[in-house]
Design goal:
407 residues; mainly alpha; glycoprotein; symport; bile acid:sodium symporter activity; transmembrane; Na+/solute_symporter_sf
């Protein structure tokens, strides 16, 4: 879309209409150095000339504040500790089998860089999102799998080795395939080399913060089993508390003003996008004829995205006065993906308790369908013994010869 024909779009006055954030001059210079947008204007100017609003002034203050940097560091440390705990669940022998047969790598490729970018692209088109909104949704869809999928997979008794292999593989593949997906799909809204803004350092850091703690967790499980169990429980609780505090803190400081600027259609996209990912991932597991626990892992791995990486790209690519409330989209997506996965976990555990582990009431004189079918299908071997009646009031079992002669 050529925004130069839109009413009120005056190219010479764009720099005065949008104020730079602190330190934003260097970012804008970098954007212009990458080729900028059409007619030589910066990438952010390709969307629209947006007058600053009261809510847009909240972002620069929080964006580069010490509190924001402190939260980022703290969350990163908690995620590393969580991956250490998840490494304690890895079975080295099964992990080696997944490496020899790289089904997990193929699934990660299809799930994260075929299904999810396409889902994000189609949802953005279906709901006719504006340029900035569509780019935020697309960036989230093109990100690799997040650590939340490993936690959720553990809670539904999924195949943890497959889940971890998929997370690592998708993060590694993101170095090449994420820019490719953005180049393919982003041209529907902008015509700019936004792929040049990819934070490859952040992707490599994410990969290292995943591989190293998992390796230490595997070693911890091998050497100190009891300590590994304690670390696993502590890591899960620490992540749960951290996420809860993060949602409360961010919502209290930025939520009311910024969330009110997000259109209702974006909320619908944030709800539908994880659901589509979960459904497509489970269908892919069925297509590959995977066992049920692996299907659950693939499903969660597909729907859960690395929202931290998405937030980093949004922060780098767009000034806060332009991105405004859409800076909250990754957090919004994380909220809905966790809530929907929580519903699935609750439903699975209820099914497991009430159906798979249904008690047998034989002692109470009640025959369930399971026990009735078991007795009906059971074939009794006549060589176990024969019944002889010597007295009307007594029944004894005598051993039979190997081939009893019918009477």
């Amino acid at each position: 879309m050529d925004n130069s024909t839109q009413p009120g779009f005056n190219l010479p006055h764009i720099p005065q209409q949008v104020a730079f954030p602190p330190g934003g001059d260097a970012t804008m210079a970098g954007l212009e150095a990458t080729g900028g947008g059409r007619f030589g204007i910066p990438v952010w100017a390709e969307f629209s000339a947006v007058a600053p609003t009261e809510s847009s002034h909240l972002m620069p203050a929080f964006w580069d504040s010490p509190l924001s940097h402190g939260i980022n560091v703290f969350v990163g440390l908690v995620l590393c500790f969580t991956m250490l705990g998840l490494g304690c669940t890895v079975d080295v022998s099964q992990l080696g089998e997944h490496i020899r047969r790289p089904v997990g790598v193929l699934l990660a490729l299809v799930c994260q860089f075929v299904i999810m970018p396409l889902v994000a692209f189609l949802l953005a088109l279906t709901f006719s999102l504006e340029d900035v909104e569509a780019m935020a949704v697309l960036l989230c869809g093109c990100c690799p799998g997040g650590n939340l999928s490993n936690i959720m997979s553990l809670l539904v008794h999924g195949e943890m080795n497959l889940s971890i292999i998929m997370t690592i593989s998708s993060t590694l593949l993101a170095l090449v395939l994420m820019p490719l997906c953005l180049w393919i799909y982003s041209r529907a809204w902008i015509n700019t080399p936004i792929v040049n803004l990819m934070p490859f350092g952040a992707i490599i850091l994410t990969l290292c913060s995943t591989l190293i703690p998992i390796g230490l967790g595997v070693l911890l499980r091998y050497r100190y089993t009891r300590v590994a169990d304690i670390v696993l429980k502590a890591s899960l609780w620490s992540l749960l508390v951290t996420l809860l505090l993060l949602f409360i803190l961010t919502g209290a400081m930025l939520g009311p003003e910024l969330l009110s600027t997000i259109p209702p259609s974006v909320y619908v996209v944030a709800i539908l996008m994880p659901l589509c990912g979960y459904a497509a991932g489970y269908g892919l597991g069925v297509l590959f004829d995977l066992p049920p626990n692996s299907r659950r892992s693939v499903s969660l791995e597909t729907g859960c995205q690395n929202v931290q990486l998405c937030t980093a790209i949004l922060k780098l690519a767009f000034p806060p006065q332009l991105i405004k409330g859409m800076y909250m989209f990754p957090l919004l997506y994380a909220l809905f993906q966790a809530a929907e996965a929580g519903v699935f976990i609750l439903a699975y555990r209820m099914y497991r308790k009430n159906v798979l582990h249904k008690p047998d009431h034989m002692g109470n004189g009640e025959d369930t369908d399971i026990t009735y079918q078991r007795f009906q299908d059971e074939d009794f071997d006549s060589s176990y013994g024969a019944v002889t009646v010597s007295d009307p009031n007594s029944i004894t079992l005598d051993p039979c010869p190997p081939d009893p002669t019918p009477v």
